[in-house]
C-alpha cells in the first residue's frame, strides 16, 4: 500500500479553465464524455500528465481533436501532451448499477446519485481528482427519467435531458448528479440582498410528507449564516436530495446536497426528538459548507479539518442559538468524550491534521471533526468574540475561491490579533488528549492553582511538547457564592501556577468550565467537593461533570470493592432533580451516568482490567437502587415530563420528553414494564413509542411490542432501522449476539444498505457487555459480516472496524480472541485498502 504524506504536497501541473461533462445514463453502460481545457500551471514543477481514474473503461481520448492512446493503469492514465494549453476530450463507460461501494456514480432504489468526496470522482471519469484543482463545470445529463439534477443553476431542460452550469469554480469532490423518479417539496428564500432563491427537497414518491421540517431547518440555517457570519447564498437554486443508500450522513455538493435519507426525512410519527435535532444540525452543517468548504476549500485532504472542524463548530453554534446552549454543550462534551477520546487514546490516534494516510476515507473521524471543532472553540476563547468575528471576515475576504491550508487559517488570526499562534498550532499537529493535573495551595488569603500538562505518546509521536490550554476557572466560597467569576487561564508551560489574591476563605474551584479545553483533568478532589459543585456550580457543564465524576467513583467502588451505591451523590442529584427552576432537558441529562464503555475506560486508567459483565451488573444494581430510592419523586417528575400540547420537535417539548423517558427507565424497574407498555400503546409520536419499546426490550417483555411495531412500520425503512437497532442495542448482554444473528437472517436485513447494516452490527458493537461477551462470539459475528461487506463496500466496513480500537483495555483472553478476528480480517483475500489500513493500525 502507498502512504501519502503531507510534506510531499506539490501543485498540479495544469490549470483547468472549464469542464464540460455529458452523461448518457444507463444502469450498466453509462457513457461519460468530458471536454476540459488545460493550461500549464506556471507555479508547478514539471511533471507527467497524469489523470486519476479507477474502474473506468476508456472508449476514446483526444487532444486538440486528435485521437491519442494514453497509458492506462489501475489508478489512472498518463499521456504525452503539448507544452502549451490544450483541449482534452475523453469518453469512458461505467456501470453505476454494479457500484456497491456507493462512491462515484451509483444507483439506489432505481435512482442515480453520486458521492465524490473524497476521491470518488475518479470513478466517474479521468480527472485530476484533488481538491486544489478547481474549475467551472457545465453538465449535460441525458436519461429517460423525470428528474435530472446537477450542481449550480439550471440552464436548459427538455425531454430526456437537462443542462446545468455552476459558475463557482469547485474541485471535483463537490460534483454531484442525481437522476430519478423523484418528487419535490419546494419553497423559496429571499437573501439579505433581496435575491430570491428556489429551495427544493427531492425525495422518493411517498416521502413527500417528511420534508417540511428539513425545509424549515434549511431556511433557518440560511438566515443564521447571514446574521452571524454575513454569508449569503450564491446560486439561484439550492437542492437537497434524500438517498436511502449512503455511506455517510450527508454531502455538501455545491447547490445539490445529497443526504442519507435518515438525516433529512422527518415526521413526528416516524422520527424521535433526537432525530429532529440531528437532522436540523446536519442540514445546517451541509448548508454552512457552502462557504466553509466550497467557496473556501482545502488544498489537500490533510487539511480536511479546515472545512470540517470549522463547519462542525458553526453547526454547534447554530444549535446553541436556536435551542438550549448549555444542553447542547453538554451533549457535545459527552459525545467528544464518548467517541473522540477513545480514538485519541488508542491505536487510531492521529492529529487533527494528519500527516500521512493510505486511504483518506479513514480520516473522516471524530478527531478531525469534533476535536477539530474544539480547537476552533479554543481559538475563539483565546482571542475573544470580537477578534474571532474579525478574523472570520478576513478569512472569507482573503481566501474566497482558494484551496487553503491550516497555515492560511491561523495566519488570519495572527494578522487580526497580532498574536503568535505557533504554539497553538500544536493542537493541529499533536495527537493524543492532553492530561492536566491540578494541585492547589492556600495561604494568607492567596489561593494558587498549579497545572501540569502531559500528553502520552501516540502512534508515530513518542514525544509531545506543551500546548496552549485555555482553562476557564471560577471560584466559589464555602457558602456557594461565586467569588471569582469565570476567568480564562492561559496555560502554555509544562507546569504553571496562577494566583488569586485577597480571598476571605479558601475557595472551591470550578475548573475547565464549559469544557473550555478538550483535556483530561486529573485532580484529587474529595466527594464532598464534588457534591458541593453539583449543588452550587453556576456552570452547567461542570455541574453535570460533578455528578458524572461522583457516578464514576460510585460505580468504581461498586465494581472493585463490592461497595453499595453512593447515597450522598444520589441525594445531591435528587435535589437537582427536584429543582423545578432547572430546565427539564438539563435534569434529564443529570439523570444519566457514565456509560459502560466509559466505565471500562475509567477502570483501565485506574489500573483495573475492566470486566464488562461486572460493569453491566453494577449499572443494573445502581439503576434499581435509584428507582427505589426515588420512588416517591418519580411520579411528579413524570408529570413534568409529560407534554399535553400537539407534538412539536422543539427544545422545550423535547426536553420534557427526555425527562419523561429518563423517568420511565426507572419506573420500569419498579413496575416491570407496566408504564412502558401503556406508553407504547398510547404513543402518538415516535419519541414516546420508541422510548417505551426500549424499556420493554430492557426488561425482556418485548415480544408482543416488537411484533406490533414491526407490523405497523414494516414499510418504512427508516423506522425499521430503529426496530432492528433497538432490540440488539437495548437487550440484556446474553441476548445480544443471538438476536443480532437472528436479525441478520430476517427477510428485511438488507445488508448492502449501510443504514441497515449499522442498525444491527453497529448496535451490537455498541452494546458493551453483549459485544464483549467472554466467548468471543460478538467479535466473531462482527468480523464475519465485515469480511462479507468488505468486497462490496470498503468504506463502511473500514469505519466499523473501530469497534475494536479499545481492545487493549481488556483481559488477555479477550485480547487474544479479538486478535484472532483482526488477523482473520487482515488475511482475507482481496481485502480493501480501506480495511487493510484500519486493521493494521488497530493491530499496531
Ligand atoms: N463532507 C461531508 C460532511 O461532513 C462528509 N462527506 O458534511
Ligand atoms: Zn462536513
UniProtKB/TrEMBL annotation:
Belongs to the peptidase M1 family. Residues 528-843 form the Peptidase M1 alanyl aminopeptidase C-terminal domain. InterPro entries: Aminopeptidase_N-like_N (IPR045357), Aminopeptidase_N-like_N_sf (IPR042097), PepN_Ig-like_sf (IPR038438), Peptidase_M1 (IPR001930), Peptidase_M1_dom (IPR014782), Peptidase_M1_pepN (IPR012779), Peptidase_M1_pepN_C (IPR024601), Peptidase_M1_pepN_C_sf (IPR037144). Keywords: Aminopeptidase, Hydrolase, Metal-binding, Metalloprotease, Protease, Zinc. Transmembrane segments: none annotated. It comes from Antarctobacter heliothermus. Residues 213-427 form the Peptidase M1 membrane alanine aminopeptidase domain. NCBIfam families: pepN_proteo (TIGR02414). Residues 99-174 form the Aminopeptidase N-like N-terminal domain. Its cofactor is Zn(2+). Its EC number is 3.4.11.2. It comes from the Bacteria. PANTHER family: PUROMYCIN-SENSITIVE AMINOPEPTIDASE. One of its GO terms (biological process) is proteolysis. It catalyses: Release of an N-terminal amino acid, Xaa-|-Yaa- from a peptide, amide or arylamide. Xaa is preferably Ala, but may be most amino acids including Pro (slow action). When a terminal hydrophobic residue is followed by a prolyl residue, the two may be released as an intact Xaa-Pro dipeptide. The gene is pepN. Residues 432-523 form the Peptidase M1 alanyl aminopeptidase Ig-like fold domain. GO terms for molecular function: alanyl aminopeptidase activity; metallopeptidase activity; zinc ion binding. This is Aminopeptidase N. Pfam families: DUF3458, DUF3458_C, Peptidase_M1, Peptidase_M1_N.
Amino acid at each position: 500500500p502507498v502512504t501519502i504524506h503531507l510534506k510531499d504536497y506539490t501543485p498540479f501541473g495544469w490549470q483547468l479553465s472549464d469542464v464540460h461533462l455529458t452523461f448518457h445514463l444507463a444502469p450498466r453502460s453509462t457513457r461519460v464524455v468530458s471536454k476540459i481545457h488545460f493550461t500549464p500551471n506556471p507555479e508547478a514543477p514539471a511533471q507527467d500528465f497524469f489523470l486519476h481514474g479507477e474502474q473506468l473503461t476508456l472508449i476514446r481520448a483526444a487532444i486538440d481533436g486528435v485521437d491519442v492512446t494514453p497509458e492506462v493503469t489501475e489508478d489512472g492514465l498518463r499521456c504525452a501532451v503539448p507544452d502549451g494549453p490544450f483541449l482534452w476530450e475523453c469518453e469512458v463507460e461505467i456501470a453505476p448499477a454494479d457500484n456497491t461501494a456507493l462512491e462515484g456514480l451509483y444507483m439506489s432504489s432505481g435512482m442515480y446519485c453520486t458521492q465524490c468526496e473524497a476521491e470518488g470522482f475518479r470513478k466517474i471519469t479521468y480527472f485530476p481528482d484533488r481538491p486544489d484543482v478547481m474549475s467551472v463545470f457545465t453538465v449535460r445529463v441525458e436519461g429517460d427519467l423525470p428528474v435530472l439534477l446537477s450542481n449550480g443553476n439550471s440552464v436548459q431542460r427538455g425531454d430526456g435531458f437537462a443542462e446545468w452550469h455552476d459558475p463557482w469554480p469547485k474541485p471535483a469532490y463537490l460534483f454531484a448528479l442525481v437522476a430519478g423518479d423523484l418528487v419535490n417539496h419546494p419553497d423559496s428564500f429571499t437573501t439579505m440582498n433581496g435575491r430570491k432563491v428556489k429551495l427544493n427537497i427531492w425525495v422518493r414518491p411517498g416521502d413527500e410528507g417528511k420534508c417540511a421540517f428539513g425545509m424549515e431547518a434549511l431556511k433557518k440555517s440560511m438566515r443564521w449564516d447571514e446574521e452571524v457570519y454575513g454569508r449569503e447564498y450564491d446560486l439561484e437554486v439550492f437542492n437537497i436530495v434524500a438517498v436511502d443508500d449512503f455511506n455517510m450522513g450527508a454531502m455538501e455538493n455545491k447547490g445539490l446536497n445529497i443526504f442519507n435519507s435518515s438525516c433529512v426525512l422527518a415526521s413526528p410519527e416516524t422520527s424521535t426528538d433526537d432525530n429532529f435535532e440531528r437532522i436540523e444540525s446536519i442540514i445546517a452543517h451541509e448548508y454552512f459548507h457552502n462557504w466553509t468548504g466550497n467557496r473556501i476549500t482545502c488544498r489537500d485532504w490533510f487539511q480536511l479539518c479546515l472545512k470540517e472542524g470549522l463547519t462542525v463548530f458553526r453547526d454547534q453554534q447554530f444549535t446553541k442559538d436556536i435551542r438550549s446552549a448549555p444542553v447542547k454543550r453538554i451533549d457535545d462534551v459527552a459525545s467528544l468524550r464518548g467517541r473522540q477520546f477513545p480514538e485519541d487514546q488508542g491505536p487510531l490516534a492521529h492529529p487533527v491534521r494528519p500527516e500521512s494516510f493510505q486511504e483518506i476515507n479513514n480520516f473522516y473521524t471524530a478527531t478531525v471533526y469534533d476535536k477539530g471543532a474544539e480547537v476552533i472553540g479554543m481559538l475563539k476563547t483565546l482571542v475573544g468574540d470580537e477578534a474571532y468575528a474579525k478574523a472570520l471576515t478576513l478569512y472569507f475576504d482573503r481566501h474566497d475561491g482558494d484551496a487553503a491550508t491550516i497555515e492560511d487559517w491561523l495566519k488570519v488570526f495572527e494578522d487580526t490579533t497580532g498574536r503568535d499562534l505557533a504554539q497553538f498550532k500544536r493542537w493541529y499537529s499533536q495527537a493524543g488528549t492532553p492530561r492536566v493535573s491540578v494541585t492547589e495551595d492556600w495561604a494568607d488569603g492567596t489561593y494558587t492553582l498549579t497545572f501540569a500538562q502531559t500528553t502520552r505518546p501516540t502512534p508515530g509521536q513518542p514525544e509531545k511538547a506543551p500546548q496552549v490550554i485555555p482553562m476557564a476557572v471560577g471560584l466559589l466560597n464555602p457558602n456557594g457564592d461565586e467569588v471569582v467569576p469565570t476567568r480564562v487561564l492561559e496555560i502554555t508551560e509544562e507546569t504553571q501556577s496562577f494566583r488569586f489574591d485577597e480571598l476571605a476563605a479558601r475557595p472551591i474551584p470550578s475548573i475547565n468550565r464549559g469544557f473550555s479545553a478538550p483535556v483530561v483533568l486529573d485532580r484529587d478532589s474529595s466527594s464532598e467537593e464534588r457534591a458541593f459543585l453539583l449543588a452550587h456550580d453556576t456552570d452547567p457543564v461542570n455541574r453535570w461533570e460533578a455528578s458524572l465524576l461522583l457516578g464514576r467513583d460510585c460505580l468504581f467502588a461498586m465494581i472493585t470493592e463490592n461497595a453499595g451505591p453512593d447515597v450522598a451523590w444520589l441525594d445531591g442529584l435528587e435535589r437537582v432533580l427536584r429543582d423545578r427552576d432547572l430546565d427539564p432537558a438539563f435534569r434529564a441529562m443529570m439523570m444519566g451516568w457514565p456509560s459502560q464503555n466509559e466505565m471500562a475506560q475509567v477502570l483501565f486508567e485506574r489500573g483495573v482490567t475492566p470486566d464488562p459483565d461486572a460493569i453491566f451488573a453494577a449499572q443494573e444494581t445502581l439503576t434499581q437502587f435509584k428507582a427505589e430510592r426515588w420512588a416517591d419523586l418519580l411520579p411528579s417528575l413524570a408529570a413534568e415530563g409529560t407534554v399535553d400540547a400537539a407534538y412539536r420537535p422543539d427544545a422545550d417539548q423535547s426536553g420534557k420528553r427526555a425527562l419523561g423517558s429518563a423517568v420511565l427507565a426507572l419506573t420500569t424497574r419498579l413496575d416491570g414494564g407496566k408504564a412502558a407498555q401503556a406508553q407504547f400503546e398510547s404513543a402518538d409520536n415516535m419519541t414516546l413509542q420508541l422510548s417505551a419499546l426500549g424499556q420493554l426490550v430492557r426488561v425482556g417483555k418485548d415480544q408482543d411490542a416488537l411484533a406490533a411495531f414491526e407490523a405497523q412500520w414494516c414499510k418504512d425503512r427508516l423506522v425499521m432501522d430503529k426496530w432492528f437497532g433497538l432490540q440488539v442495542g437495548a437487550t440484556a448482554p446474553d441476548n445480544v449476539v443471538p438476536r443480532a444473528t437472528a436479525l441478520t437472517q430476517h427477510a428485511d436485513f438488507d445488508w448492502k444498505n449501510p443504514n441497515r447494516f449499522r442498525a444491527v452490527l453497529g448496535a451490537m458493537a455498541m452494546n458493551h457487555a453483549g459485544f464483549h461477551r467472554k466467548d468471543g462470539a460478538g467479535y466473531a459475528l462482527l468480523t464475519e459480516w465485515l469480511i462479507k461487506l468488505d468486497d462490496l463496500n470498503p468504506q463502511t466496513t473500514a469505519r466499523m472496524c473501530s469497534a475494536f480500537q479499545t481492545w487493549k483495555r481488556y483481559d488477555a483472553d479477550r485480547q487474544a480472541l479479538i486478535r484472532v478476528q483482526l488477523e482473520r480480517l487482515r488475511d482475507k483475500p482481496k481485502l480493501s485498502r480501506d480495511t487493510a489500513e484500519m486493521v493494521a493500525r488497530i493491530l499496531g
